[in-house]
Amino acid sequence: MMPDTVFIDGLQVRAVIGIYAWERSVLQDLRIDLRMDTNIGAAAAADDIDLALDYDAIAGRVTALAGASRYKLIESLAEEIARTVLGEFGVKRLMVRVTKPGAVANARGVGVEIERP
């Protein structure tokens, strides 16, 4: 059976992130996208939120994690998000994309995208 996908698109968070000295003392905007493989069959059949993947809880957890982090690299933050979501929410596989808007002149954003089983 093909997995179903639950996604969170464009979650806006603020975090201390970056390698430069000035970046270590300010909050910067990040955009996080998640695609999570799961099975929605039981939740859909019963129309029961308790059987569904709680994307509001996931968004809250990722926002709190990013806000408390002090990573230098967005790669490190992406890995921590993946470990947390996989470990705490029973997701079978996920893609995490972290975008840092305005980090490079003339680019809407730069970032990293990872997939983890």
Number of strands: 4
Low-confidence stretches: none
Q: What value does the average pLDDT take?
A: 95
Number of domains: 1
Whole-number radius of gyration? 15 Å
> What overall geometry do the principal axes of the alpha carbons give?
elongated
Q: Which CATH top level class fits?
A: Alpha Beta
* CATH fold category name: GTP Cyclohydrolase I, domain 2
Q: At the fourth CATH level, what is the homologous superfamily?
A: GTP cyclohydrolase I, C-terminal domain/NADPH-dependent 7-cyano-7-deazaguanine reductase, N-terminal domain
Major beta sheet summary:
4 strands, antiparallel
Task: Report what the structure shows.
There is one protein chain. This protein has a 4-stranded antiparallel beta sheet, covered by helices on one side. Helix 2 runs antiparallel to helix 3 (about 75-90). The longest helix has 16 residues, at about 75-90. The chain has 3 helices and 4 strands; from the N terminus they run ββαααββ. The radius of gyration is 15 Å and the shape is elongated. The model has no long low-confidence stretch (mean pLDDT about 95). The two termini are about 15 Å apart. It has one domain: GTP Cyclohydrolase I, domain 2. A hairpin with a 7-residue loop joins strand 3 and strand 4 (about 110-115). By secondary structure, it is an alpha+beta fold. About 30% of the residues lie in helices and about 35% in strands.
